[in-house]
Amino acid sequence: MLEVKGIKFQYEKGRPFDIPDFQLSSGEQLLILGKSGSGKTTILNILGGLLKPLSGDVRLGDTLINQLSGAKLDKFRGKHIGIVFQKPHILSPLTVEENLSLANFFSGADGKRNQELLKELGIADKRRAKVNTLSEGEAQRVSIARALANQPDLILADEPTASLDDHNAEIVIKLLQDQAKKYNAALIIVTHDQRVKDHIVNQITIGALS
Ligand SMILES: Nc1ncnc2c1ncn2[C@@H]1O[C@H](COP(=O)(O)OP(=O)(O)OP(=O)(O)O)[C@@H](O)[C@H]1O
């Protein structure tokens, strides 16, 4: 379902990144490990079509993401890829519900699942709360809900547990795994958080070329 092949990437004046080839089927999970600065966010952004590789292909289903651009890419991403960013990209002055509706709007989805999703993530009682009144753990769950709102085929999570205590980190990992399983989505988590290591057997480690 997801195939990553021959990816080369380098920021202007930066060093080249060593990005291994890999494949992932629907419902499979992958952990990408690497120390700080090794390029984890970079690779996630390439997989999500937010950065263009210099060469190589990222294929999701029948679509080569790296060959899409502009509105087509935005629409494809909105429909098929859910990204949980390292720092929650949720709009703080809006309510939890409004943040999900916005995600639905951008991809043309109907939002029928929103209420159920909030329930599953344990934040249904906060649906009318403004995001800037939530705790960090709750805000992280809203950002997960937003990433999952359109039932993506591929879920990408960038350090989703970085700012969470052990208990909440465990909850967030389980939520991501349960949701991915429920909707048969592929799940990729990038992290340097050792606590996540025991939860996903399929792992690759990346490092920058020197
Ligand atoms: N826009 C950019 N322009 C130039 N260099 C960048 C840019 N973004 C990141 N880098 C550099 O690329 C390298 C990899 O960054 P990246 O954020 O992908 O690492 P990471 O593994 O996610 O790190 P962390 O675990 O600390 O979040 C770093 O050396 C960083 O300074």
Order of helices and strands: EEEEHEEHEHHHEHEEE
The CATH architecture can be given as: 3-Layer(aba) Sandwich
CATH class: Alpha Beta
Calculate the mean pLDDT score and round it. Answer: 90
From the spread of the alpha carbons, the general shape counts as globular
| Count of distinct strands | 11
Oligomer: single chain
- Ligand kinds: adenosine-5'-triphosphate
- Can you tell me the CATH topology? Rossmann fold
Structural class based on helices, strands and sheet pairing? alpha/beta
Keywords: ATP-binding, Nucleotide-binding, Transport
Organism: Belliella kenyensis
Protein name: ABC transporter ATP-binding protein
InterPro entries: AAA+_ATPase, ABC_transporter-like_ATP-bd, ABC_transpr_LolD-like, MacB-like_ATP-bd, P-loop_NTPase
Explain this structure to me?
By secondary structure, the protein is an alpha/beta fold. It has one domain (2-208): Rossmann fold. 32% of the residues lie in helices and 23% in strands. The chain contains six helices and eleven strands. Strand 5 (55-60) and strand 6 (63-64) form a beta hairpin. Helix 3 (96-107) packs parallel to helix 5. The chain is globular and about 45 Å long. The two termini are 32 Å apart. The mean pLDDT is 90. Bound molecules: adenosine-5'-triphosphate (ATP).
